[in-house]
Amino acid sequence: DAKTTQPNSMESNEEEPVHLPCNHSTISGTDYIHWYRQLPSQGPEYVIHGLTSNVNNRMASLAIAEDRKSSTLILHRATLRDAAVYYCILIEAGNMLTFGGGTRLMVKP
Amino acid sequence: NAGVTQTPKFQVLKTGQSMTLQCAQDMNHEYMSWYRQDPGMGLRLIHYSVGAGITDQGEVPNGYNVSRSTTEDFPLRLLSAAPSQTSVYFCASSYGTSGGSVQFFGPGTRLTVL
Questions:
Q1: In this structure, are residues B89 and B78 in contact, taking their beta carbons and an 8 Å threshold?
Q2: Dihedral, CA atoms, B29, B32, B36, B40, nearest 10 degrees?
Q3: Which secondary structure element, helix H or strand E, spans residue B22, and what is its range?
Q4: Which of B56, B103, B109 to mutate against chain A (most A CBs within 10 Å)?
Q5: What is the mean pLDDT of residues A40-68?
Q6: So what's the pLDDT on residue A2?
Q7: CB atoms within 10 A of CB A79
Q8: Rounded CA gap, A88 and A75, in Å?
Q9: Closest CA to A74 of A3, A16, A6
Q10: How far is C-alpha B51 from the geometric centre of its chain's CA atoms?
Q11: Cβ–Cβ gap B100/A94 under 8 Å
């Protein structure tokens, strides 16, 4: 699987937007970009995924650069419950999830 | 739907003991997998299955066995536990293996090997 690079940690204030970046300069044309998050003492939870176009769902938005070498997960209004480790993962058909270190998001009240 | 369930939640073993971690899903998913997560680290793939009767090794398979006799269940067996296997174990399932498939994770089993 192609590798991703994420900041180790980020901080946000409650009710403000959060932009979590991910670099994936070696992405291939068939790699999907997935985001999962892991709350303390829980299993990972799916957040969002996309291939080429920007995506929105009830949890977040995913902005994908035109060259696909980077993407940004956007939480529109961070809450304390959003404090978690966020993983950006590239997945090709038939391949498995490969987790890197992720970004630890801290949300301040 | 219960989703992905795992038992037990916690387990303490002595070196050399064997045990089976249970995983079940009620979503009729073809694909199931086992990961381990060491403190402060990301998840690493142990074994996976693309359907009943089919299993394959992941990144860290040594010391673990799996079988998949039904679509619903995917147990993970530790044959002779070692302290290096102290970890949190997560089971996951997904409908398929396309790049767009979403994986659903269980709550995890915390295993300590003394």
A1: no
A2: -40
A3: strand B19-25
A4: B103
A5: 95
A6: 57
A7: 12
A8: 14
A9: A16
A10: 15
A11: no
**CA-to-CA distance for B82 and B38, rounded, in angstroms?**
14
**Which residues, in sequence order, are CB contacts of A58 under 8 Å at separation 6+?**
none
Interchain CB distance below 8 Å, A46 and B42: no
% residues pLDDT > 90 (chain A):
81
Q: Which amino acid is residue A73, in one-letter code?
A: L
Tokens of B112: 């300590």
Q: Tell me whether residue B79 is exposed, middle or buried, using C-beta atoms within 10 angstroms of its C-beta: 0 to 12, 13 to 18, 19 or more.
A: exposed
Average pLDDT for chain B: 94
CA distance A71 to chain B (A): 16
* Gap between the Cα atoms of A5 and B87, Å rounded: 25
pLDDT of B81 strictly over 70: yes
Tokens of A87: 């993983």
Asked if the Cβ–Cβ distance from B99 to A46 is below 8 Å, we say: no
B5 against A29, higher pLDDT: B5
Q: What is the pLDDT of residues B2-46, one digit of tens each?
A: 899 999 999 999 999 999 999 999 999 999 999 999 988 889 999
